[in-house]
TrEMBL record:
InterPro entries: Iso_Racemase_Enz_sf (IPR053714), MaiA/AMDase (IPR026286). This is Asp/Glu racemase. It comes from Ruegeria haliotis. It comes from the Bacteria.
């Protein structure tokens, strides 16, 4: 019988690890099937690290189920280890941020991560619209009328004219994630073609806008934002990443305005 091998003690050095340029934390809905895939493309940069935590949510999207996430948000935020020293953290639910409130979301995240900047798709959308200089927009959602109206009114209160609204009228998040990118492109073209809007915002992190963003903007001749791409852009800019991108929409050609 051969003797057990001696375990050699190996020498090592320690470096800064992943994310030397930026560490980005994401709180993703338990039912989301899209955002991680799109962020992996939109935020692919050398030495930028993405870390995800999932937050419980109901498959049925209603004001009550969205508001319930407020109670679960501190636990989800703590699953992103504070020791990682995140530069920026995003709570990735447009309708949830609308119902809970952007300020309340920021308060909860910064309680766990006091040194991190924060955003969410609603805050990111407003910042992106400002950077693009857009005031009149078309809004596309997958939501029920009640949730869609709340988002429309929130944007209006922020000073944006919502000239047209279209919805797929779905409350099942699983179904929303299966709406084809072709259907989304057709909706963007249909709703966004109006002369009284200067750009389009496609709300919901589950909608697969990235594959058609370039074609949508080319067909309309207008900027098109999505929850995912606006949030990815805002996270990058808040983290000090000023790179442009050719595959994630016009917004990535812009920097933050002085108001952000």
């Amino acid at each position: 019988m051969n003797p057990e091998p001696h375990i050699q003690a190996l020498r090592f050095d320690i470096d800064a690890g992943l994310g030397g340029r930026a560490k980005v934390g994401l709180i993703v809905l338990q039912t989301d099937q899209t955002i991680e895939h799109e962020f992996a493309t939109a935020l692919r940069r050398d030495d930028v690290a993405l870390y995800h935590a999932r937050i419980p949510n109901e498959m049925d999207v209603t004001p009550d189920t969205l508001s319930q996430m407020e109670a679960d948000l501190p636990v989800a935020a703590a699953l992103l280890p504070p020791a990682f020293e995140f530069n920026v953290i995003g709570y990735c639910c447009t309708s949830g941020a609308t119902m809970i409130g952007e300020g309340r979301v920021d308060e909860i995240l910064r309680r766990v991560h006091p040194n991190a900047k924060t955003t969410n798709p609603l805050t990111a959308c407003k910042a992106a619209l400002q950077a693009l200089g857009l005031k009149r927009i078309a809004l596309i959602t997958p939501y029920t009328a009640e949730v869609t109206a709340e988002l429309r009114d929130t944007l209006a209160l922020a000073g944006f004219t919502v000239s047209a609204v279209g919805s797929f009228n779905q409350s099942d998040d699983f179904t929303v994630a299966r709406i084809s990118s072709g259907s989304i492109l057709a909706a963007i073209q249909e709703v966004g073609a109006r002369e009284d809007c200067d750009g389009v915002f496609v709300s919901c992190t589950s909608l697969r806008v990235l594959p058609v963003i370039s074609e949508a903007e080319a067909r309309l001749g207008k900027p098109v934002l999505s929850s995912n791409l606006a949030t990815a852009w805002h996270l990058a800019r808040l983290a000090g990443i000023t790179d442009t991108s050719n595959n994630a929409g016009r917004i990535f050609q812009h920097q933050l305005t002085s108001q952000d």
